[in-house]
Structures are given as structure tokens and as C-alpha cells.
Amino acid sequence: MKVLVGVKFNTRTIAILGMLIALNVVISIFFHIPIPMTHGYINLCDAGIFIAALIFGWRGGVIVGGASGLLLDLLLGYPQYMFFSLLVHGLEGGIAGYLGASKSHGRQIAAIITAVVVMVVGYFLSDSLLYTMATGLVGVPTNLVQAVVGGILAFPIVAGIRPIVKRHLNF
Predict the structure, then answer these.
(1) Which one of 32, 63, 153, 166 is CB 3.0 to 4.6 Å from 43, fit for a cystine?
(2) In the chain, where are the structural domains located?
(3) C-alpha closest to that of 44 among 23, 62, 66
(4) What is 3-33+43-169's CATH number?
(5) What is the pLDDT of residues 1-38, one digit of tens each?
(6) Burial state string for 103-127 with b = 16 or more CB within 10 A and e = fewer than 16
(7) Whole-angstrom distance, CA of residue 124 vs CA of residue 147
């Protein structure tokens, strides 16, 4: 059993991460807005990624981010983005978790801001590669709104549930 940022990756933690992936996918499917100009959509995926990252560290962020992004694209009919979402959202979660897990509120906010920039740049590059640079530029504001809203939603949720999670997972 390895310990990283105070979190033991045991069977219970892995099961909770799996449930977070499922919850994130269901909520994001329910609350998604297609954006025809970018061939993509806005959703609440980033909130779940940030919650997992700030509580479970970089590993939890990578796992929930990558799996949630990939599954959302598969289930919502955007298979061209699956690989990119696996990488971009996985990196987003990894950075947020590495920089912000078990840190002060100021460090967590900085971690979320850094992860938001990484996600926006990642999808700019993805859209530019899949379509055109103009498509990538059109996607920047929508991806920025999606990620900022995710961060705003995640921050108070993490502050509220962190003590409960710590008590039940013994970290």
C-alpha cells in the first residue's frame, strides 16, 4: 500500500475513485450544453476532477480526470475527443492534485487556476489539431467558463467534505 499526499491507495480508495468517476460522468451527461462551433460541449466534468484531485492527490486527479473525460466523450457521441480528453483532463487532475492536495486554501486556488490554464491550452491544441486553429480559438472562452465554473463549484465542496473523507478513509 503506497501513501501519497496522505492518501492510502487501498481497495476502499479505488472503489471511491470509481464511484467518483461514475458520479462525475452522470452529472456531466445530465448537465451538458453542445457547442456546434467547436464540435464539443460544456459540462460539469471539471468540478468532479477538482474534487477528486484536491482530496486524493495527483493520482486521484489523473484517474478521475482521464476516465471521466474519456467516458463522457464516448457516451455523448464525441469519439474524436476521447484520446485528447483522457490526456487533457488527466493532466488537469494530476496538476490540480499535485499542487493543491493537502495544502492551504491559497495553494488550492492556485492549483485550480494552473489546472484551468492547462485544460484550456490542451483543448485549444486538440481542437486546432482536429479541425482548425480558428476552431481552437473559438473553444477557448467556452472551455475557460467550463473550467472556472468547475473550480468555483469544487472549492467549497472540498472544504466541506474533506473532514468527513479524512475521518472515514483514515488519512
Answers:
(1) 32
(2) 3-33+43-169
(3) 23
(4) 1.10.1760.20
(5) 344 455 667 888 899 999 999 999 999 999 888 888 77
(6) eeeeebeebbbbbbebbbebbbebb
(7) 13
pLDDT > 70 fraction of the chain, expressed in percent and rounded? 94
CA angle at 157 for the pair 5 and 105, rounded to the nearest 5°: 55
Residue labelled with grid coordinates 468540478: 47
**Alpha helix stretches (DSSP H) within the chain:** 11-30, 45-76, 82-100, 105-130, 133-169
How far is C-alpha 74 from the chain's CA centre? 16
CB 5 within 8 A of CB 101: yes
Q: Which residue has the cell 452529472?
A: 27
